[in-house]
Amino acid sequence: MLGKLTLEQKIELIHGADDMVLAPAMPQIGLPEIRTSDGPMGVRSWGPSTAYAAGVGLAASWDTKLAQRIGEAIGRDARARGVNILLGPGVNIYRAPMNGRNFEYFGEDPYLAGQIAAHYIQGVQSQNVVATVKHYDANNSEYDRNNIDSIIDERTLREIYLPAFEAAVKEGHVGAVMDSYNQINGEHATQNKFLNMDVLKKDWGFRGILMSDWGATYDGIAAANAGLDVEMPSGRFMNAKTLLPAIQADKVSVATIDDKVRRLLRIAVIFRFIHNEQQDLTLPLYNPQSESVALESSLEGMVLLKNEGALLPLDLRRVHTIAVIGPNAYPAQPTGGGSANVSAIAPVSFLTGLSKAPGPNTKVLWNPGLKVLQHIKGRGFSIDPEGRQPGLRQEEFDKRDYSGQPDRVKVVSDVDLSGPDDVHPSGKTLAVRWTGYYTPPASGPQLFLTKTVRGDGDTYQLYVDGKLLLRENGSEGEPQSAEVDLPAGKAVPIRFEYTSQVNIIRVGMVALPAEEALTPEARKIAARAEVAVVTVGFDSSTETEGHDRTFHLPPGQEFLIKAVASANPRTVVVLTAGGSVATSGWLNRVPVLLHTWYAGSQGGTALAQVLLGSANPGGKLPMSWWSREEGDPTFNSYYLTPGSEDLKYSEGVFVGYRAYGIDGRKPEFPFGFGLSYSSFAFTHLTVTPAAAGDAPINVTFEVTNTGSRAGAEVAQVYVSDPSARVPRPERELKGFERVVLKPGEKRQVTLRLDRRALSRWDVVSHGWKVDPGKFVVRVGDSAENTPLNQEIYAK
Asked: Burial of 29 by CB count in 10 Å (0-12 exposed, 13-18 middle, 19+ buried)?
């Protein structure tokens, strides 16, 4: 096939032909047009489809068999639409909760992520659809992603950020890999020869297609020589105009081009694209079989984090009115935003799912709880503390440090998004300062909130009474809010400083009594019901590709939780998010917290089944949950080094649960944690052989359902290395199995560990190494609760 193509035709095959077309048809060799589709929560790019639970929700199931079933279902959905290549799964490590794409990925642990990914890939590719593992590598934040340089030491790269990709290649046999936007140790991913050639293609033996993320190529010759096979979505750099002269000048070899085309043709043969029609017209576009798998994915991933007084499951003999309150009740929020967003055909919202489930003797009341953010108007700003002159003083500066005299000064009624008269006449970027006073019209919590139009790199700081209250460092770009208790009639000084990357104002800021942000009916409905369900969190506009989100809930939602809980102590908080959120201000006020992640097309159906008890929650956290962002081990290293594009991973291998105990660090909820309506016990651990060599290690134990309901437990195996010659985490996940048991049922579980499970990366030999001595094998239901322990010794 290769021999029938001219050099110009070969170059045409190593860059995208259209936005979602990886390669044009080449009839002379039987190659059809190769279509791609965004994923990984559903087939996005060719019309509406079924949306499955978010990647982080799938990881929360800890169920590799479910991952394979979801892959198979998405593969069928792709075939129904004639898609050859699915652009998923994403396996970037959950390094910090603010990453806008955490919802797509499989959590903080590389072993868990790798196992879920490998089985998902096997499922997709069983349908003759190519899976694409992404974003290779160290794309662990979204802000400024085209410029960030992820500075990672060799050991951390090998132990934390590469293993999930390695599992996708070696165990999942993935057909395609996607390079990320960012730099890694000084080289953009698409021209990083060490990662693309030395690690991926040589060390791991990857024989498939290495493509760029859309627009992530920066140098055609460098990318071609560093192993990039296909530039997407078009040939901006790896084109004939660039490469033909480079070939003539011996800067790029024909053999290099041939290798890229051969990889594409090899995949086309293996997946039966040659002379075959990819679209299967016998498969329905709206497939009940897919919707059934989507429901499974929603149910298994939901994590019950708190259930004081066994409030759940709800007893409908005593609950006749349920109040559903909050912005995430309706419409449905099946997925986060960006390229992972799926236009679900018939998504079930939390409101409709709960409304249909209880039966004739229980009614469901609904209220959004919060006013629409953009409609909220503040009041109480004045130039002087006596309130004689309403408004704020607005000063604009050419210099971003606010030095010198302002270029323009005026009085404005409030801080609002730009109008036509707010464009800086010089065309320069803006530095703007607003000063004045806020006088609360009523005593109690006052809500200070920002209303922003997303602007990458825009920053602001809000000071109230001289104290920093809100801050945007240029990475998140989402609305924020904070509460301050103030007495009525007492003016407090306000200073709001803002820098824009363009010559217009893209921010708003208001202040008002927090109660005025609520709808008038919210408290009343909550008080009338036996149980109140508060649905809060993010959505596809606030948690999405291209920028990060805030750690705190969106504006007003924390106050809404507290307001509903004060009206009804039987309050259930239902969270939609790609990870953890700040809980220190409200968690102790509510008896129940249920994390649903982004629950896909069937999220409302799944929520009703969990709350009403027809399904028993069995999800476990795939990441650590810190009540305050200062507790996260990346708190001081997540954002860029000031004045540079360097993002230093200074926490090293001590990410997430690997940092427990360091400096007294303790999570709100540990990695692997999740409650059930049942209870389980672990007993009878044996680990053989006791002296480990090259042979596999068998870890055998029993799990018993000691409760009165059928349910699922996730048995987790961790390994500790107290004899290590270098600092290592106190424990690391090396095995797991989801076990479904009837009441009183007991099952023996055997998990096998290979020598890699005991190893660390050695920077001297540049390979995996076992330090001889004592190891401890631990078994339990979270990173903090491992009741079974046994010592073994390694040679």
From this structure: middle
